[in-house]
Structures are given as structure tokens and as C-alpha cells.
Amino acid sequence: MTERDDFDKIVEGLELDLSFADEPVEPVEEPEPAWNPRTDDDLDAEEAEEPFYRKVEPTTLIPRRRGVLLAWVGVLGAPLSLVVATLSGVFLDRSIIAAASLIFVGAAIYLILQLPEHGPSRKDWPDDGAVL
Q1: What is the number of helices (H) and of strands (E) in the chain?
Q2: Distance between terminal CA atoms of the chain?
């Protein structure tokens, strides 16, 4: 017999289930659920609950405010113009690259500041922000 190492000392106290898959398994009987008929009070309580979701009217794809539209043009147009200039082989001056970068950053900050604020002043607060 070989020497007993630390692993054998740890495992000797464990009660291991060494049953194999070939052995038949006894089926477990599940108790039948108690049947409770629904009453009119239950139906009234369900109807009185608030609906699961709130219907929100779809918004237009193009923003109505001129500032938001210009900000989107800056966020999308500045990097796109730099990519087009690079792909066409035009070398731009540093001032043009810096201006495009500043336009992108300024437009992104403006759009972030225009996001609606959800807080205690709104009737649906606290809200997780999901809109269908």
C-alpha cells in the first residue's frame, strides 16, 4: 500500500454518492396543486392594477429643433469628413483637424445636455428609462 497524502486525508471524511446512471432511478411523485377557483373579487383586483407598460407615441426621425439637428450634423459629419479626406488622399492642415475635433466634441456635449431629465418631478419616477 502506498503512503497516504493530504488529499486522501481530506477525501476520507466525505460521503460520496457513487450510484451510476445504469441504476434505475425511483420517480419522485409531485403533489397535485390545490385548485382555487377565481372569484369576481380577483378579477376586479386585476383590472384595477396599472397596466404593465405605458404607451408612448413614436417620435419623428428628424428632430424638430434646429440646434439638435445641427448637433447631429456635427457629431456625424465631422468624423465622416475626416475619413473621406483620408481615404481620398487629401492631407488636411492641423487647424482643420482640430476644428473638426472640437465640432464633434461640442456637438456631442450639446446632445448629452439636451437629454430629458428623469427625476422626482416626473409622475412616473422612479422609472428604469425603458421606452417601447
Answers
A1: 4, 0
A2: 71
pTM: 0.48
* Helix, strand, coil percent values for the chain (each to nearest 5): 45, 0, 55
Please name the residue that has the C-alpha cell 431629465. 117
If residue 112 lies in a helix (H) or strand (E), which one and from where to where? helix 94-113
Q: Where are the domains of the chain?
A: 66-113
Q: What are phi and psi of 60, to 5 degrees?
A: -75, 155
pLDDT tens-digit profile, the chain (132 residues)? 567 788 887 777 777 766 666 666 677 777 776 766 666 666 666 555 666 666 778 877 777 788 999 999 999 999 999 999 999 999 999 999 999 999 999 999 999 998 877 666 666 666 666 655
Place of cell 417620435: 59
